[in-house]
Amino acid sequence: MDHFVFSPPMVSAIPVAGGGLFPVRRIFCVGRNYAEHVREMGGDPDREDPFFFTKPADAVVIEGAATPYPPATSDLHHEMELVVAIGAGGAEIDGAHALDHIFGYAAGLDMTRRDLQAAAKKAGRPWDMSKGFDHSAPIGDIAPAATIGHPASGLIELTVNGKVRQSSDLAKMIWTVPETIAYLSRQVRLCAGDLIMTGTPEGVAAVVKGDVLEGRIAGVGSVRTQIT
Ligand code: MN
User: Fold this and answer.
1) Separation of CA 4 and ligand 1 centre (Å)
2) How far is ligand 1, taken at its centre, from the CA of residue 29, in Å?
């Protein structure tokens, strides 16, 4: 039997509230999913189809761990987001059955090298290096849907050094979680272990070394990291 020429990487994993580890397969992210954030980025929040970008699975930073300030940027931004953890895969999932595919939810941060993103947008180039860099996805413990249900509304908030930076409500998402799963599963076959970061509300801004980021989503949980 053939063997690996070096040891395969460890599986990226996130602790589950109540016990166990959720193995991360892929991280999909929704762009422009709260109207006020679309406006603050200079866009038009008309209900255009959702679009997606990705981060590598090993970009995850687990609850309480430090987030190193990344290279190649001087404008690192926070984006506080609800994270959906897929427990059962599928393609062309009907919105009416989408919730059946969800294992649980978490609070997460879509960290963004905003200067690289602006340059990529201007040049019509891919967003990968602005979104999918090392340590770009701090994510709190995953709360199983079996315990918390499926939150469609409730406070989503981020503080930096104790001051509120982002505060909104999950109900303000342009595309709901079931709609997002329906769209995304027509682009790719979703698999157990996939995460979907569902977009950020308004209030995105820069962070610097030493900042402590604490996010919470009512009924879901929290995420905490310090930029080092
Ligand atoms: Mn985002």
Assistant:
1) 35
2) 6
Residues around ligand 1, an ion, CB closer than 5 A: 79, 110, 200
The tens digit of pLDDT for each residue in 182-227 reads 999 999 999 999 999 999 999 999 999 999 999 999 999 999 999 9
Fold of 14-226: Fumarylacetoacetate hydrolase; domain 2 (3.90.850)
If you measure from the C-alpha of residue 214 to the centroid of ligand 1, how many angstroms do you get, rounded to a whole number? 16
Ligand 1 centre distance from Cα of residue 100 (Å): 24
Structure tokens at 119: 């340059």
What are the residue boundaries of the structural domains of the chain, listed by start? 14-226
Distance 9 CA to ligand 1 centre (A): 26
Closest-CA residue to 200 (of 158, 151, 228, 144) = 158
Q: If you measure from the C-alpha of residue 106 to the centroid of ligand 1, how many angstroms do you get, rounded to a whole number?
A: 14
What single-letter amino acid sits at 90?
G
Please tell me the distance between residue 203's alpha carbon and the centre of ligand 1 in angstroms: 12
Task: Please spell the DSSP secondary structure of 129-176, one letter per residue.
Answer: HHHSSTT-EEE-PBEEHHHH----SSEEEEEETTEEEEEEEGGGBSS-
Q: What is the pTM of this model?
A: 0.97
Q: Which residue has the tokens 């070394």?
A: 209
Question: What burial class does residue 29 get, using C-beta atoms within 10 Å of its C-beta: 0-12 exposed, 13-18 middle, 19+ buried?
Answer: buried
Give tens-digit pLDDT for 40-78: 998 888 778 899 999 999 999 999 999 999 999 999 999
